[in-house]
Amino acid sequence: MQTETKPVTQKAGKPWLSKGIRDHLVAYSFIAPNFIGFALFTLVPMIFAVILAFVKWDGSNPMNFVGIDNFIRLVKDTTFHKALWNTVVYTVGVVPLTMACALGLAILLNQKLFGRNFMRTAFFFPYVASLVAVAAVWNFIFSPTMGPLNNLLHLLTGIPIEDLPRWAADKDWAMFTVVLFTVWKNMGYYMVIYLAGLQGVNPELYEAAELDGAGGWKRFVNVTIPQLAPTTFFVLMILVINSFKVYDIFINLFAGADNQLNDSTRVLVYQIYNTAFRSLDYGYANAMAIVLFLIVMGITIIQFRGEKRYGQ
Amino acid sequence: MVGPQKKFRAGWKMLAYLALIAVSIGMIVPYIWMLSSSFKLNKDVFTFPMVWIPDNIRWQNYVDIWTRIPLGTFIYNTAKLSVIVTLLQLLTSSFAAYAFAKLRFRGRNLLFLAYIATIAIPWQAYMVPQFILMRELGLNNTHLAIIFLQAFSAFGVFLMRQFYQGIPDELCEAARIDGLSEYGIWARLMLPLSKPALSTLTIFTFVSTWNDFLGPMIYLTKTELKTIQIGLRMFISQYSAEYGLIMAASVVSIIPVLIIFLALQKNFVQGVASSGIKG
């Protein structure tokens, strides 16, 4: 970084040193505003999180070190198991459906079609639209007796409204409902990632496949799918991680004024939130948070390895 | 757009259009219904078959929402927080990113590693100790808590650094020889050059602060401090039968994001496509 313009007056290296220090101070002054905030509000809590998982603490009385008691409690806690299970079920529902819809739409929109830009915008918008507002509409749409969805289904199928699914209000249909809603809300985002991936596919590959006499479907299977593998892998990882972090969608679809979820809809982050901020059981809540952390870290490591494999 | 697309048969194209039209309806109709219901009396919201344009357009809903709930306060709070967080994020991230990309100093790799290492750790995993820390600092039930929570993200530093690394070092060298200080290079060279990255970061930060739910839910329990998301949520759960009003308030809460989205959507889409991180 030093510029060799003027002959440096070698005065026992003193101006050198002070320039070095000055350069360092300048560099640190660039980093400091962000790093201080980042260290204090991200790094410190992260370190604190590890300690907190091994204590029992209600936030006001002195902390008690309890070793791995919190984790032993987790193993026995059936409510926590239910929350973890629901999160897994939600993930298993959301991930493949979102991927299929996102890829399908991306392939359709990757052609020259009338209204392409408009559709891309319209499909993406739910992702940025305020969740509380769109959840309010969908709650009305899903409303069992009055809602337009069941009225429409009744009209189309003739099944009495009482026999139609009660959607968010029915514990057997709740998970299906929230998966549908999530796919509706987020698929546009992944569609845009897929569209970018499709733009990166070398057109010559299609031409070569065509010369070989490959039809549309064969080209899709033999060119598009393998060429999109890195994108698909990335989308898969992000989707799984985001599904494990879910909270707000469940609250807005299922909870009443008390913001409580029941056994069929409680998820991992809800359980952490409730244990910490309602039961004031900070240590135990943090043990759950560590589980979330480990799951996400595990996925990230898989992703990291996979990227190495897919990286050119 | 060359190759197989050209040869797509007309039948295929018809099918594609049909599928896309069906999806478009599914994506757009909820908003239209929201808008239409916001002009209706409660008793008319659920009439079936739907009446898209009500006989008596009820503007009163849009008058009532401002008095039934402190919607103005909620919007003011959210706008204030979103603007402050976005400005801080842009300023501090691009500042730090400049040093990481273009300056050499001791501890650079270590400090950057600290950012990288945390980027994958979900906020939900450390929200509890963060809350305890904020409470100890007396920040519970203040807007500062939300600002500190959102403004110094590793994501911002990472995004800006990636962009700055694409700018040739020779440009900075030339500016140095011309006598510009490092601050001058940042302000007069890097900032103007990094407009695309800054726009991406702006829209991501603004929208995620505007739409944040769990953060304000943890920190802001006083009604006068609440943001639009949790304010609206409180209103919906308390007056669950005020269908028309709920829809009117929902429309109002979506409009600012819609405007920003339409204005900057190109950057948004490019940002998602290139970075694809933020979620």
* Distance separating the two termini of chain A: 32 Å
| Assembly classification | heterodimer
Radius of gyration of chain A from the CA trace? 27 Å
Q: Counting H and I runs of at least 4 residues, what is the number of helices of chain A? A: 13
Shape of chain B: globular
Number of helices of chain B: 15
What's the name of the CATH homologous superfamily of the largest domain in chain B?
Answer: MetI-like
Give the tally of β-strands of chain B: 0
Unreliable spans of chain B:
none
Q: Structural class, judged by helices and strands of chain A? A: mainly alpha
CATH homologous superfamily heading of the largest domain in chain A: MetI-like
CATH topology grouping of the largest domain in chain A:
MetI-like fold
Measured by residues with Cβ under 8 Å of the partner chain's Cβ, the largest interface is: A-B, 104 and 110 residues
For the report, how would you describe the main beta sheet of chain A? 2 strands, antiparallel
CATH topology of the largest domain in chain B: MetI-like fold
Share of helix of chain A, binned: over 70%
User: In angstroms, what separates the terminal alpha carbons of chain B?
Assistant: 29 Å
**How many structural domains in the coordinates of chain A?**
2
Please name the CATH architecture of the largest domain in chain B.
Orthogonal Bundle
Q: Mean pLDDT across all residues of chain A, rounded?
A: 89
